Structures are given as structure tokens and as C-alpha cells.
Amino acid sequence: MKGLWLLNRITLGFVLAAALSVPPARAGDTGSFSAQYEGFSHGLLVLRLAGQLTLTPATYVGALQYHLAGMIGWMIRNEDQSQATGVFDGNSAVPKRFDSVGNLRGTERITRIHYSGGDPVIEVRTPPVQLERTEVPAGMTPHTIDTLSAIALLIHQASATGTCNGNATLYDGRRLTALTARTVGDEMLPKTGRSIFSGQALRCDFDGNQLAGFKKDEPEAEQRKTKHGVAWLAQAIPGGPLVPVKVIFENKILGQVTLYLTALTGGSGPIARANR
After folding, report:
1. Phi, psi (degrees; rounded to nearest 5) at 3
2. What pLDDT was estimated at residue 273?
3. Do the Cβ atoms of 112 and 96 come closer than 8 Å?
4. What is the spatial distance between Cα 83 and Cα 50, in angstroms, rounded to a whole number?
5. β-strands 243-251, 119-126 pairing
6. Which of these, 155, 170, 152, lies nearest to 60 by C-alpha position?
7. 229 has which bridge partners?
8. CA-to-CA distance for 28 and 242, rounded, in angstroms?
9. Dihedral (C-alpha) 247, 149, 64, 268: value to the nearest 10 degrees?
10. Mean pLDDT per 10-residue run, the chain (276 residues)?
11. From CA 188, how far away is CA 38, in angstroms rounded?
12. What are the residue ranges of helices labelled H in the chain?
């Protein structure tokens, strides 16, 4: 279950990075929203995610919380909270700080990064990365960004192209991942008791490739395999940004996981939770 510890940032990074670009008529590039998600696999609840993002024309503040849920959450303690701050420089995000505090099977995990000249500088990394992974070469980390900064950047750039097409290189202090998103088009999502949203949404397919920071107890070739997913995004709050309303991704432990939007605040106010 070690791989699940990073599920929050990498997965939701895939989810929200699919919002790389949307036309200004469909989503705003400033404002705040808070979203909650529940993930299901084989019909069972397996995880809960919550994210918050505040954007201004010049700055961003983001936060993300994650924990396993349902029966698997009862068996295994796996949780994490992260936050990031930064500024926008034209079409680029310049992170200032990224902090993460989590727990896996009773072991505290902390990562604290500040950025100097756009490059990540590790302040704290507990437990030491060398105990679990190969170190990401220093030459590969300059001008990388954390996942929360990528989320802010991709939404901030919404007015540029009107599509999901784009890429980003993410570094969380332990591994390096290349992310690519592409536009599929608008699709209708049917009503379901697991989600508060139904209606037309923009479908974005995404691929992730781990480039460095490989686990020592798994074959590197397996870790390098492309991971695929699908995200549907919609302007679920009037005047607000485009947000993920449904996501499907693969996890080697959980299998295929589907995330559903269960609560959303921002814009004109809250949207009620899905009926159970």
C-alpha cells in the first residue's frame, strides 16, 4: 500500500490538470472554490478527497486533503494534507512554498519545499527518500512545480486556448512525473446518487509517466508504464471556474477507481451533497 500515500497529489493532479485550458465563457480565472469527492472501486467506497483553491490575477493559494475510506480505510491508515502558495508570471506559475503532512500505517510523512529562483529546495523530507526510492537527479528538478501549483496554473491559463491540451512536469520532493492532457469533447453525464452533478461536461483524457524517483522494491519498468485516466469538467457553480465533476483512473492496488463530486462551494454558494 505504499503507493497509495501519494495517491492524493498525483491523482488529483491528473484530475485538475485536465482543466489546462477552457474558454472564458465557460469558466473564470479568478475566485475561490472548495470541492469534495468520493472514490469507488468495485462498487465500494475506498477514498475521500477535498480540495480548495483561491485565485487572483497575480497569486494563488491551494490545499488538498486525502484519506482512505470505507473498509480499506478501516484496515489501513493512510492520510495526507498539503498546501501551496505562489504567484503568476505571465503564463507561468512560480511556486513559493509547498508543504505536506501525512501518515502511512502509523509513520509520519512530512515534505516541506520552498522555491528559490523557481527551483525547489527541500527543507524537510521525512522519512528520508533514500530509504524507499532512488533520488531524483538534481538536474531534473529545476523549474518543476508541485501539483497544487499546476492546478492553479492550468485554471489560470483557461482563457488562452479553450482546450485541455497541454503538459506539466510535477515534482513532489520524492518523484518526478510528466503529465499530458488532451481534449476529447463535450459529453453528457447522467444522474447518479453518488454525485451532485449531471449534465454536459468537457471530457479530458490524461496520461502520466513517472520519470524519476522510483521505488526500490518494485521493477523500474513497471513504474515507468504510462498511467491513463479520464476527467470530466464543468462550470458547476455560476461564474466559477471549471472543476472536475467525475474522474476515472487506474491504481494497481485498488483497480479502477471512479471519483464523484459530492459537494462544492464557491460562486453563488453551496451545492447540496448527493442523496444516498
Report:
1. -65, -20
2. 53
3. no
4. 12
5. unpaired
6. 152
7. 206, 249
8. 7
9. -80
10. 42 45 42 88 93 85 88 79 90 90 85 93 94 94 90 62 76 92 91 96 90 95 92 80 85 85 75 49
11. 20
12. 7-17, 70-75, 147-156, 158-161, 220-223
DSSP annotation of 235: -
Res 244: pLDDT: 85
Q: Which residues pair with 82 in a beta bridge?
A: 64, 100
* C-beta separation of 257 from 66 below 8 A: no
- Sign for the pseudo-dihedral over CA of 143, 144, 148, 150: positive
**Residue 19, pLDDT score:** 38
Q: Residue 241: which of 96, 59, 26, 58 has the closest Cα?
A: 26
Strands 166-171 and 92-104: unpaired
CA–CA separation, 227 vs 220, rounded Å?
Answer: 14
Residues 6 and 10: their CA atoms lie apart, in Å, by 6
Over its C-alpha atoms, the chain yields an Rg (Å, rounded) of 18
Q: For residues 94 and 211, give the distance between their C-alpha atoms in angstroms, rounded to a whole number.
A: 22
Backbone angles phi, psi at 160, to 5 degrees: -80, -45
Instruction: Map out the domains of the chain as residue ranges.
Output: 2-266
Position 214 scores a pLDDT of 97
Angstrom CA distances, 182 to 26, 166, 206, 258, 260, stand at 17, 7, 6, 19, 21
> What pLDDT was estimated at residue 156?
67
DSSP state of 275: P
> Under 8 Å CB-to-CB from 256, ≥6 apart: which residues?
41, 248, 249, 250
pLDDT, position 4: 42
Cell digits of residue 136: 531524483
89's grid cell: 508570471
Contacts of 5 (CB under 8 A, 6+ apart): 78, 80, 102, 104, 109
